Amino acid sequence: MPRIRTIASTIACAGFALLGSSLAAADDDNYMNSVRLGSYSVFYHVHADDVSGPYVPPGVNIHAENLETLYGAYVRSLPYDFQVELAMGWPPLAKTKGVGPAELGSVPYNGQVVSEVRWFAPAILLEYNFLPKSSPLRPYVGVGANYVSFYDRTVTPAGQAAFGGPTRLSLTSSLGPAATVGVDWHIARRWHFYASYSASQVKSDLHADTDGIIRVTRVSFRPQALILAGGFSF
Amino acid sequence: MFKVCTAAAIALCAALMLAACGNDSNTGTESTSTAHGTLAQNPPFRIASVDAATLAAQLGATSAGAQLLEVTGAPVCGVDFYYLTFWTTGAAGETTESSGALMVPTGAAGKCSGPRPIVEYAHGTQSNKAANIADITDTSNTEGALIAAMFAAQGYIVVAPNYAGYDISTLGYTPYVVASQNAGEMIDILTAARTALPNTLAAATSDSGVLFLTGYSQGGYVAMATLRAMEAAHMKVTAFAGGSGPYALEAYNDAIAFGDVALGATEFAPLILNSYQHAYGNIDSSTTPPFSSTYPNAQTLLPSTTPISTLFAESMLPETALWNSTTPVVDIPGQPVLSAELTAALAIPNPANPANAVFDLGFGNPYLLNNDFRVAYAEDAATNPDGAVPTLMAGAPLAKVKPTFGFRQDLWLNDLRQGNWGPIVPTLLCGGDQDPTVFFAANTQVMQAFWAATPYASAITVLDVSATPSGPFAAIQTGFQASEAALLAYLQTPAGGGLSASAAQAQVIENYHVDVAPFCVLAAKSFFASL
User: Fold this and answer.
1) Chain B residues whose beta carbon lies within 8 Å of the beta carbon of residue A151
2) Cys bridge to A31: A187, A233, B110, B484, which one at CB 3.0-4.6 A?
3) Hey, what CATH topology would domain A2-233 get?
4) Contacts of residue A160 in chain B, CB cutoff 8 Å?
5) Mean of the pLDDT values across residues B327-356?
């Protein structure tokens, strides 16, 4: 956790450096940069192959619980109403639940939180704004890429009981397309409110190593996110 | 744009840094030592955990399982099934990883947790190389289900090896009935299991220090070899119960050579000959090659991932014909009497005698083993006879001197009459005197006779499940005989195939060795519980 704070601080420092330089350079009415902060409501639409490997009965699957986290972004204006957004959420702790048989042997499985994993998931989006800059409401659409790295992968006691012992999880990182649609409400000179809905493709190969026994599945998380954020331009 | 790139680069670096750190949960530890007895994966993997009610329901869901429950009684405890991997050695001292089962009782009942006795069980001959006795999810694992229901679900911790050469072992053969290896592997898995026990998910159950050794068929031999080794090493054993084991290898194989061909001999022969070739290097021979030219690859065929029924169907192994139906005419230069005796002894047992019907199945063409090999064996046996076959002598001793024929020499070496020893702990020898696979008279009764006039005799109880019911195991004898009678009647019904009385009887005899197993295991449990 301290390392995450260090990294967050590094990003914040970099942001302030950019802020400072841009403030000095920006024309009062033509801000080129903005930062956004808000809430990130993530809805997973998980599709996973049934878990396969030794001693796994048919129909054992997993599901990720929806979650909320902090949203932050840096946006740089480009010519012709384009902008580029570098966004990410505070790495959320995603909980994975068992789906399938009510019990494996006599161990509860279906509906049990079997693992937890943090997502580091920055996205970069090229966005196009509709309507003139002077308009108080400017819809925008964007496409880009989303990178996900999974860390702090832990298997809960319920998961250990279901899987058969202490388990090491590995999930391959994912790089996939992302898209967003949103609206920018200019509420004051430098202040904005944003609402957007995003979708991205996140696929990962999950390997669970329980005392040398390997079980695998391929997971498509298909997250969609509702973002509500305030922004400051400079 | 430069600033955007800078921010993106920082974020990317952050991602890479995050990917490299974190607080991930870990799995068990894989041992770096390959010393024998080392637990390879600690804690061991738990294949399944079932409570008593679930185990009863799962077993009761099939007719075979329901019959098993009738013998074992309803489960009292739940059972955690652990897959043990450990290091051991092969017959020639090769280091190999092997595997097996650790079954731990669980649950609220008093005898399901706390300090509990260990039952170490050795399984019978298995042709399936992939067999894993720990895998209770495999419906073909009937022996695993038997010991789980009989022992683990009744409050005993169970330890059972798969044997080197099976499952994950890359040994390339299995050390079949090699006493020193078999005992060593049993001791190794016991050591590994005791290491594993405190670290399992069922840590409330611990080793009380009481150790019962048992096994059936090949496993009866393995368990007795283990008893001998543990006694020699002054290791604590509480009691022993062997079921239908080929303990007296020399006597048993002499009987087979002289025409009493055991049912299953075409499965046992490749296993034992390949095992002894690896252990002693004296089986392969250019002058007396064991295997007929019809089955040139038979020696290394087993264990196999191909079902043995397929090996039979595809003519890779004969189903019953161990010997050539054209029996040899023996002509030993200068020894006409011995030659004549051996020629007669190697003839097909008189087909007119119904008692020989099973033995006569062991002759045919194509056949598995060559006449020259058989003659060489028989000549060795005739000149240096075993004390039980063909004639039972007082004390049923081994051949007086080390045999000269390689295979018989190996049997002599691994016969459990070797070692000037006897059981000093309560011992039950269980079997059935109609057994056509592992002959009761040539094994169990030979051991009984061998120890009859020694101080060890007082420790030994012999149970013949086919004998007139009497004594402490009368209920088991009655149960077995009722079960056989029910099977005989069933086989003559339309549902059972509508066999004639004689065909049904033949079928019952064919299944006899397997049918005795749960009753001998039950006798073992009853014997252990009585101590």
Assistant:
1) 18-19, 21-24
2) A233
3) Porin (2.40.160)
4) 201
5) 91
